[in-house]
Amino acid sequence: MPYLILDPTDEYAAHEKRFLDRLGLEAVVLLSSARARGAWESRWRGELGAHVVAEYDVPHDELDAFAAELRAAFPDGFFGIVPWDERHVLLAAELSDALDLGWNSRAVIERFRDKSVLKAWLRAHGTARVNRARVVSDAADALAFQEEVGAWPIVVKPSGGAGSMSVFFARDAGTLLDGCQRVLESGLGEVLLEEYVGGTEYAVNGIVAHDGGVLVTDIWRYDKRDRGERRNLYYETLKLGSREEPFEALGDYAAAILDTLGLRRSPFHMEVKVDDAGPCVIECGARFAGGNQTYLASRLHHHSLFELAVCHYLDDLDVGPADVDYAYYDAHGARILSGIQDVEIESISAVHGVDEVRALPSFAGLGMLRRVGMRAPLSRDVNTKAWEVYLFHADPEQVAEDARAARRLLRYE
Description:
- This protein is an alpha+beta fold.
- It has 14 helices and 18 strands.
- Helix 1 packs across helix 11, helix 3 crosses helix 4 (89-99) and helix 5 (106-113) packs across helix 6 (115-125).
- The longest helix is centred in the N-terminal third of the chain and has 15 residues, at 34-48.
- It starts with a strand and ends with a strand.
């Protein structure tokens, strides 16, 4: 039987498909948009076209008829479905329901696609700590929520989206209502207000097995900084060792959250803050982490987490520490540097320091680098980072030294 893969038009999906190619498994490619079709035909079919037995454009408004078409074309059924990222998990769940593929149902995945739904479900069905949150529809609702919380700041964000896009920290009634209006205009969902949680923020990543077993593969500590009115900007993301605090506590907390949400056979990416009251979930996705955390985590474990995840997408497998290498993980340092652009440049005339950064002993990759002639916007969220530098080395001090050097060297003119 072939397997279904949604939009294999990204390096994440490419890692998974190449692995399945090596196993000799055949693929049915499902393209969810005209843009995905164009990317597949212009580049990715040439790179990933082997072992593809059919291609389809997905008719989103006729999924039942489309499922019937797939069943007729492949009467023996399908091995499973590979969704691989945030944009595809809901469609994968809908097709899994229609084709009886045994992956997560639409009802489960919908909890991960809307932040307000996720928090409401956790409060109603679980016991783990969750901060107060509410979708608001007008100024009176917004001000009433703040009065109920009784403290500033209030976090204003869209119910959809990711990567700190259109997220604001309101410190008075004026900035609260202004933030609500800006979220409304973003088109990323309803206006969601949340109780602010202080402390340290972490990214918790891993795999959920078919029986709900959770393997935490990697945890990262976020170093986010303010630049005037621009708040919570990505600066560095630092690996947390498996024997460091609070790795174990975060793993236990993540397992409780995922058990309540009911996720199965999927990678997960959770953002959690830890203050004096303990862990508190901020967001959770039924997907890999972005920002190349998964590449670095794979290198830290000396094993591809993409391959591990795709095995769980397609089969009912147990999961445990033997699937990774915590000793190797703990023996190496890694971090992601995020450039903060403080001056907007309409057209870049020069990019300085690239060769020198590539020569650093711990250099492991460079991302989001803009070219001459491109615009460099002010950094406000994950999409407006100036650049990313990925560092990996057996000596954590070397990583720290190279991080300082990279920030001195890399800049736009």
